[in-house]
Amino acid sequence: MDAAMDTYDVIVLGAGPVGENLADRAHAQGLSAVVVESELIGGECSYWACMPSKALLRPVLARADARRTPGLRQAVTGPLDASAVLAHRDAFASHWKDDGQAQWLDSSGIDLVRGHGRLDGPRRVTVTEPDGRQRTLTARHAVAVCTGSRAALPDLPGLADARPWTSREATSAASVPGRLAVVGGGVVAVEMATAWRALGAEVTLLVRGQGLLPRMEPFAGELVAAALTEAGVDLRTGTSVTGVRRPEPTGPVTLTLSGDGAGAGGTLDADEVLFATGRAPRTDDIGLETVGLTPGAWLDVDDTCQVRDVAGGWLYAVGDTNHRALLTHQGKYQARVAGAVIAARAQGLPLLETDPWGAHAATADRAGAPQVVFTDPEVAAVGLTAAEAERAGRRVRVIDQDLAQVAGASLYVDGYRGQARIVVDLDRGHLIGATFAGPAVGELLHSASLAVVAEIPIDRLWHAVPAYPTISEVWLRLLEAYRG
Ligand SMILES: Cc1cc2nc3c(=O)[nH]c(=O)nc-3n(C[C@H](O)[C@H](O)[C@H](O)COP(=O)(O)OP(=O)(O)OC[C@H]3O[C@@H](n4cnc5c(N)ncnc54)[C@H](O)[C@@H]3O)c2cc1C
Ligand SMILES: NC(=O)c1ccc[n+]([C@@H]2O[C@H](COP(=O)([O-])OP(=O)(O)OC[C@H]3O[C@@H](n4cnc5c(N)ncnc54)[C@H](O)[C@@H]3O)[C@@H](O)[C@H]2O)c1
């Protein structure tokens, strides 16, 4: 490529789901785009996160439902075929090869440069290619940092030498460990405890707080905790890990425990230990210092995803790196917004629609980000929890409904256990949050997202009649309770 060809309208650093979408949006609006990728096109989501984890969990949830279905449960008495489940997972991770995604990029007219990219002052990116050569790219309009996040490990004595699992190993391991210790009580911890327990591991879940899924409505974590315990997981709350040792490279790992929970003292031996203790931004080695920012920090952006504190309006941070919502669908939404913003600014449009819910504002990150946790029971949530609404000073009414009372739920499986909650803003007359926990509630979530994002007046929602007998009839029960 000659020097002139190294100038693009948009340079995208990182070809995860977010970088791919941003490049696609910019290109669709007539801009030239290049993406720089140091590992696999498709990013964390395709190979070590969403796809492999859900491929592991799908058979687990299907079996759980089958076991609760009269006439069917007798047909599913045996254990899961772990090697078949792992093979299914391998296929969904494309065997950790990105040929398919590379082909898509190629056919879409977006250029790809493989290698590690770093900012090199305003609008410039240098790439260290796999063969060690350096290449410089220049952006006419924008550089978008879409480098994602990695697992954050606590600073514990002995941890590095003990070769702990992170989310990468937990989603790609080739065999089932006999004993797996999981540290953390968030989404990765509960999903992976669910999967590996069902695949046959003895799982101990070590949670330093008092419950699971602390950012969600309390009943969600309580239902998941009860189900994990029932499935044979040794759940220890109020328990911190203060040390980790693996004296023999191929031998077991020993954790030192402390805390005020029952079972918090002493030590715990396991064959593997997964640290599911949150994420850190992959911004430590991307040249942030060359544009006046701090390496290793989450990037602070406005609602257009433009990085604040950088003059000239050319730098964007989209997806996990901006820490607005660490979710693939939300990052892709930001990419659609930022792609439109970059194109509009490149075309010199005088006015952008940056008001809430405008075309150039990622409003849903704060007001309507949905999430499904694929545990048994599933948890599905959108918008604010009751506690968040209260902290935000909103005047709300909270309505709860036992999902077991809904005909569609009791038909779905025997002994259905679940709970639903809506949070209604009394001043505005519409929903600002909803949470469901129970089998198959994931597919219920989009109805709640619509109600929150479209700000459907509660009086109009009353006319949206759920079909009988579906689990969606929970909407009728919730609205009946609200209206009295
Ligand atoms: C176990 C697990 C399960 C998850 N499950 C779900 C789920 O079910 N649903 C959901 O919505 N979200 C899920 N998430 C979250 C989701 O994976 C992330 O929100 C999503 O991957 C973020 O996309 P991204 O493009 O911002 O970053 P990433 O997917 O992390 O992609 C970033 C890309 O940038 C590349 N890169 C980094 N630095 C450089 C550099 N200097 N030069 C060139 N390339 C670089 C990386 O190699 C990578 O390919 C899960 C996360 C985990 C850990
Ligand atoms: N189904 C999904 O949508 C899905 C699935 C997995 C992950 N994700 C995304 O990935 C992100 C990362 O997930 P995660 O579970 O790693 O992070 P998280 O922030 O959800 O949970 C981390 C947990 O670890 C605990 N923790 C932190 N440091 C600790 C320490 N030193 N010792 C013990 N506990 C500690 C925290 O209190 C917290 O409960 C989430 O924000 C989520 O959005 C989404």
Give the overall form: globular
Q: Tell me the fraction of residues in β-strands, as a range.
A: 15-25%
User: Which molecules are bound in this entry?
Assistant: flavin-adenine dinucleotide, nicotinamide-adenine-dinucleotide
Number of strands: 21
Average predicted local confidence, pLDDT: 96
Q: What is the CA-atom radius of gyration, in angstroms?
A: 24 Å
Q: What is the CATH fold-level name of the largest domain?
A: FAD/NAD(P)-binding domain
Q: Which class best fits the helix and strand makeup?
A: alpha/beta
User: Segments where pLDDT lies below 50 for 5+ residues?
Assistant: none
By CATH reckoning, the class of the largest domain would read Alpha Beta
CATH homologous superfamily label of the largest domain? FAD/NAD(P)-binding domain
Major sheet, described briefly?
7 strands, mixed
User: What is the CATH architecture assignment of the largest domain?
Assistant: 3-Layer(bba) Sandwich
What is the number of helical segments per DSSP (H or I, 4+ residues)?
A: 15
Helix content: 25-40%
How far apart lie the N and C ends? 70 Å
- Indicate how many domains the architecture comprises: 3
